[in-house]
Amino acid sequence: MSGQGKQKRTYTDLTILGVNLLIFAIYTGLGLQGNSDGLITSFFIAVFHFVICCIMAIAVRRWSWFLAGVLIIIIGLGTCANSVKI
What we know:
The protein is mostly helical. The chain is built from 3 helices and no strands.
């Protein structure tokens, strides 16, 4: 058997960003369905998601993981700031 069966699959940068933003959209949407505590919980999940993305960026040495984490934090902070009523 040649080495064809064990090909290492690499994901494109756009795939990494898209999947992470889709996951973010799902748990943010679920947080918006509840009360204001659900949205704050979604933000803490986003912070945890950011940490995981940073760890993955270091582990696989790809900037797209870090970029995905930064986008998640920026969008999450904007979503939370938008929900605050003065």
